[in-house]
Specification:
By secondary structure, the protein is mostly helical. Helix content is 66%, strand content 2%. It has a domain of 155 residues: Serine Threonine Protein Phosphatase 5, Tetratricopeptide repeat (Alpha Horseshoe). The longest helix is centred in the middle third of the chain and has 14 residues.
Length: 559
């Protein structure tokens, strides 16, 4: 501003001085005050009052007193004569440091100078006297013959709060009754002050009666009065929630929220836990959602109690919702909490997708998995026809060092007549070098052959042989060969026959046949002999197997 040759005016200096004073840099404010004359600016009463306030904020009340004296000595200049703001500021300063006697002296001086106190002056002094426990001086102040002030809502609320702080709830009631006699408007603070006083003295029944009056008269919904403080109602909310009356606490809480009361996290927690104690978990959840929407972050205990409560009541869908919000709020639940919710989702029909999402979250957050639960989730997804998601979850688990019970899953698919899905699962297990019981492969191959899917059955058989993975069952190969011949796949049928000739029978009741030690080399060499001039069939099948990814991508077949 100075570089651009624009001269600062009185408004500029007052704004800068106020900024310094609000930041407790009153010395810098005085430097500007002294520089004003150099720019042709004369301080006015706003400048002086701003510096008075800065001195009081900095705790330099005696200096402020002398500064006010300097204003008086410049009596010839009416523009800087102390006004009601000047005296009220100094009164607040003395009250703030506990010197209420000096505050009263300033008040008397003010009246003597012909400056008329306003309601802010009176309420400031009343509050200071009450905090200093000088109720005798409060009485004198309000009964002065020269007093033209009529106590307002703020005055009465201050007096009631003082009596309650001193443990004199009955005296606070008398003030409240006097307030009604004089037709002074009551507000939320009037009631919350009395309620807090009753709770402090153990008179909870009287406190409850006042709450009923608040709700019946719609006190909290009144306009033109102070915004309620939610924290002021904490004592009665706590009483309700520890005495089986969470619903009443909830009604009061809703009124406070509708009135846009000053939010208190403790109040929300009190009522939410109160609902949980009484089994009203969904009401607790509604309040938690209301809390989160106001950008308030419930603590770990609130979420944990809700999740455990829903799980105990077998309301597993809401247990998952609560857990999901818990994660979104940045908390890390215990591993047992994850497992409990996951087990609950598996017990209920229709929650397969949510269970899959939870498993994915556990993998992402590196939460220890339970193999039976993970297997159950995949089985549930497959049972709901969500094959791609099931395959995705299995792949996610294996990629992160976990596994599932493949034989159990394959058996489940087999019993559900989902033979193609079972084949895909077995191909994946072979790709991951898992050794499964020969019976599992045989059942799936036989079922595929029986349902007209011999080509798919051969692909699984070929993958088993390629991996050299254990054993197959002789009757299975007979069925596979016959099915291949039936659909004209003679080369594949011949390959199966040649493999049967190179296997030795194990003399047991199951008629298992095992591969020779050199089977892998010999089967590859022999299969090359049945290639035709149009291409390499082995390469085609081998490529099909090697390209298998999870989830296994194929066209949908009818089982």
């Amino acid at each position: 501003m100075l570089d651009s040759r624009i001269a600062p005016d009185i408004c500029t200096f007052n704004t800068l001085i106020r900024g310094f004073c609000l930041n407790r840099s009153v010395d810098e404010g005085f430097e500007l005050f002294r520089d004003m004359g150099g720019y042709g600016c004369c301080p006015d009463v706003v400048t002086y009052n701003t510096l008075l306030d800065g001195l009081c904020r900095a705790g330099k009340v005696e200096t402020a007193r002398n500064f006010l004296g300097g204003m008086k000595r410049r009596g010839g200049d009416s523009s800087v004569s102390p006004n009601v703001v000047s005296y009220t500021t100094l009164i607040r300063g003395f009250c703030g440091c506990g010197d209420v006697v000096r505050a009263v002296e300033v008040f008397d001086e003010m009246v003597g100078m012909g400056v008329k106190p306003n309601k802010v002056t009176y309420n400031t002094l009343v509050k200071g006297l009450c905090e200093a426990k000088r109720m005798d001086l409060v009485k004198e102040l309000l009964e002065r013959e020269d007093a033209v002030f009529k106590p307002d809502t703020c005055t009465f609320n201050t007096l009631m709060a003082a009596h309650c702080d001193f443990g004199r709830a009955d005296d606070a009631v008398k003030v409240f009754e006097r307030m009604l006699e004089l037709r002074v408007k009551t507000d939320s603070a009037s009631y919350s002050t009395l309620i807090r006083g009753f709770c402090k003295s153990g008179e909870f029944k009287r406190a409850e009666e006042l709450v009923d009056e608040i709700l019946e008269k719609g006190v909290l919904k009144r306009r033109g009065v102070c915004v309620p403080l939610m924290a002021a109602y904490n004592p009665i909310l706590d009483h309700f929630c520890h005495n089986g009356k969470a619903n009443r606490a909830g009604m009061l809480m809703r009124e406070l929220i509708e009135r846009r009361a000053t939010i208190d996290i403790g109040a929300f927690k009190t009522v939410i836990l109160g609902y949980c104690r009484e089994g009203e978990l969904r009401e607790a959840y509604k309040l938690l959602v209301s809390m989160v929407r106001r950008n308030l972050n419930p603590d770990f205990e609130v979420f944990e109690v809700l999740v455990e409560g829903f799980s105990a009541k077998e309301d597993h869908g809401f247990a998952w919702k609560a857990l999901e919000r818990m994660l979104n709020c940045g908390h890390r639940p215990r591993t047992s909490t994850f497992h409990s919710v996951l087990a609950g989702l598996l017990k209920k029909d229709g929650f397969a997708e949510e269970a899959g999402n939870l498993v994915a979250v556990m993998v992402e957050r590196k939460v220890r998995h339970h193999i039976d639960l993970s297997t159950g989730v995949v089985a549930s997804l497959l049972g709901m026809g969500l094959n791609d998601r099931a395959f995705e979850i299995v792949g996610l688990l294996y990629d992160n060092g976990y596994c599932v019970k493949m034989e159990k899953l394959a058996e489940s698919l087999y019993k559900g007549n989902k033979y193609l899905e079972a084949r895909d699962l077995l191909l994946f297990s072979l790709k991951r070098n898992e050794t499964l019981d020969a019976e599992v492969h045989a059942r799936v191959i036989n079922s595929l052959c029986a349902t007209g899917k011999a080509a798919e059955a051969f692909e699984l058989f070929y993958a088993v042989n390629e991996k050299g993975s254990g054993c197959v069952i002789s009757s299975c190969l007979n069925d596979l060969r016959d099915a291949l011949e039936k659909i004209g796949k003679f080369r594949e049928a011949e390959f199966v026959s040649k493999q049967m000739n190179r296997l030795e029978t194990v003399p047991d009741g199951d008629k298992l046949i095992r591969a020779q030690n050199d089977m892998t080399h010999r089967k590859t060499t022999n299969f090359r002999k049945i290639q035709n001039h149009n291409g390499n069939y082995k390469a085609k099948v081998s490529s099909s197997i090697s390209e298998t990814r999870w989830p296994y991508k194929r066209s949908v077949h009818a089982s």
